[in-house]
């Protein structure tokens, strides 16, 4: 996801925001053991310990190193161990092998965070906001992205355990029946797409530009578990006419047979959540589905997935949702669940906007080089930190990705 910025908050606000974001990462990790924080369940996911260290590496590398007098890293090896994909910074530890980093210990990573936070506090006392603000805000937005990844990567890890341990012990309450799904029409026409404010945005949201939209309609809410179960029980995973070729190959290979965390035992459907295994709630949104599954379901319903421009055009007046550990059911009239429930697949390939230009230097690697073989998701999920979502935000993943809180909004 990307790098850019407009205005920066006031100096005191920056210091407060830094402290709050950094504390939130530690709060997410607080219920976990050192063993929980070290394991890696698949190459696309990272250990919680690595997330805690990498977000600290970002501040040490991009803010402290160019500005501190007599800069000395906390540990020279961390420059390689906790570099993610910044080729301009230097060598990287292979992503699929992050779970093999039993050392440094979780305690040492916490000490790394504490030391960098002290150094950042001193920097914030002396550095002019004009020279620091935009990059600091990028670092905080980057850490918020990793806070969401901490939860989704952890969920995938816990799901590999046959005990199905819960991250949060309290059970999920059964949701009330959502309103009937309706299609809300939009006249289309020339639309301004992309970020147009004066606060922070990522560079992939720029430049704001005009595009033409034919008349379209968007579903009033997300597809529910109950509605998706109808697709499963009607043989949706056995009908090749519904599937894109790569998706059907995955079905035939047994790689996808139902949403990622659904579990059927003795004819009863359950769902693994961060609250542990729960009865499948028909009212809550179906989540952890791939683009292939979302597209197949849309075809089955005689609909399609929205383009990202349609989604953004419709979302401008939608309310932002509150964060949590599992998506809630829709409740109300009009467009519901545009934010705060599930990321929503679009039919749009992840590509640069007309006139896009990445930032110079290593920071420019944040977004542009990933604009290939991925699809755009819009909105935000229950795991997205408060204040992180906006209508122009462009998330992106490969078509087969399912470990994020991804859901389905239909369009016509």
Please give the radius of gyration in angstroms.
Answer: 22 Å
Give the name of the CATH architecture of the largest domain: Alpha-Beta Complex
Total of DSSP H or I helical runs spanning 4+ residues: 10
Tell me about the biggest sheet?
4 strands, mixed
Report the principal-axis shape: globular
- Number of DSSP strand runs: 11
Level-1 CATH class name of the largest domain? Alpha Beta
* Unreliable parts: none
CATH homologous superfamily annotation of the largest domain = paralog of FGE (formylglycine-generating enzyme)
What's the end-to-end separation, in Å?
28 Å
What strand line-up does the widest sheet have?
Answer: 10-9-8-11
Short description:
The protein is built from ten helices and eleven strands. The protein is of the alpha+beta class.
Overview of this structure, please?
- By secondary structure, this protein is of the alpha+beta class.
- The chain has 2 domains: 11-159; 183-407, paralog of FGE (formylglycine-generating enzyme), CATH 3.90.1580.10.
- The protein has 10 helices and 11 strands.
- The protein has helices spanning 11-29, 34-38, 48-64, 78-81, 106-126, 129-159, 225-233, 245-252, 291-300, 308-315; strands spanning 183-186, 189-193, 209-213, 216-219, 262-265, 268-273, 276-279, 343-349, 375-378, 395-397, 406-407.
- A 4-stranded mixed beta sheet has the order 10-9-8-11.
- A hairpin with a 2-residue loop joins strand 5 and strand 6.
- Helix 1 (11-29) packs parallel to helix 6, helix 3 (48-64) runs parallel beside helix 5 and helix 3 packs antiparallel against helix 6 (129-159).
- The longest helix is centred in the middle third of the chain and has 31 residues, at 129-159.
- It is globular, with a radius of gyration of 22 Å.
- The mean pLDDT is 94.
């Amino acid at each position: 996801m990307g790098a850019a910025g407009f205005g920066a908050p006031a100096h005191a606000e920056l210091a407060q925001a830094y402290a709050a974001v950094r504390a939130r990462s530690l709060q997410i990790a607080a219920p976990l053991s050192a063993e929980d924080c070290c394991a890696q369940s698949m190459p696309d996911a990272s250990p919680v310990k690595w997330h805690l260290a990498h977000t600290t590496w970002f501040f040490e590398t991009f803010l402290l190193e160019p500005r501190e007098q007599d800069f000395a890293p906390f540990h020279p090896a961390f420059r390689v161990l906790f570099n993610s994909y910044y080729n301009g910074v230097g060598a990287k530890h292979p992503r699929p092998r992050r779970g093999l980093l039993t050392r440094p210990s979780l305690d040492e990573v916490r000490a790394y965070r504490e030391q960098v936070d002290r150094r950042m506090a001193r920097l914030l006392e002396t550095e002019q906001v004009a020279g620091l603000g935009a990059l600091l805000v990028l670092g905080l937005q980057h850490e918020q992205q990793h806070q969401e990844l901490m939860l989704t990567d952890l969920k995938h890890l816990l799901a590999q355990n046959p005990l199905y341990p819960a991250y949060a012990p309290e059970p999920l309450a059964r949701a009330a029946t959502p309103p009937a799904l309706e299609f809300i029409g939009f006249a289309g026409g020339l639309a301004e797409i992309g970020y147009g404010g004066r606060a922070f945005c990522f560079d992939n949201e720029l430049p704001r530009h005009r595009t033409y939209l034919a008349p379209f309609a968007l579903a009033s809410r997300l597809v529910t578990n109950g509605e998706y179960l109808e697709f499963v029980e009607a043989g949706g995973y056995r009908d090749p006419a519904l599937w894109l070729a790569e998706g059907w190959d995955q079905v035939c290979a047994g790689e996808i047979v139902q949403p990622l965390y659904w579990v059927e035992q003795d004819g009863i459907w359950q769902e693994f959540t961060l609250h542990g295994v729960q009865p499948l709630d028909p009212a809550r949104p179906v989540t952890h589905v791939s683009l292939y599954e979302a597209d197949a379901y849309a075809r089955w319903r005689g609909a399609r997935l929205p383009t990202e421009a349609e989604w953004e055009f419709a979302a401008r007046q939608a309310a932002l949702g509150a964060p949590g550990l599992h998506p809630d059911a829709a409740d109300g009239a009009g467009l519901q669940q545009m934010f705060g429930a599930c990321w929503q697949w679009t039919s749009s390939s992840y590509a640069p906007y007309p006139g896009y230009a990445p930032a110079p230097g290593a920071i420019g690697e944040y977004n542009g080089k990933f604009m290939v073989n991925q699809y755009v998701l819009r909105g935000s999920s229950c795991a997205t930190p408060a204040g992180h979502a906006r209508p122009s935000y462009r998330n992106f993943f490969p078509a087969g990705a399912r470990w994020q809180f991804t859901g389905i909004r239909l369009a016509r």
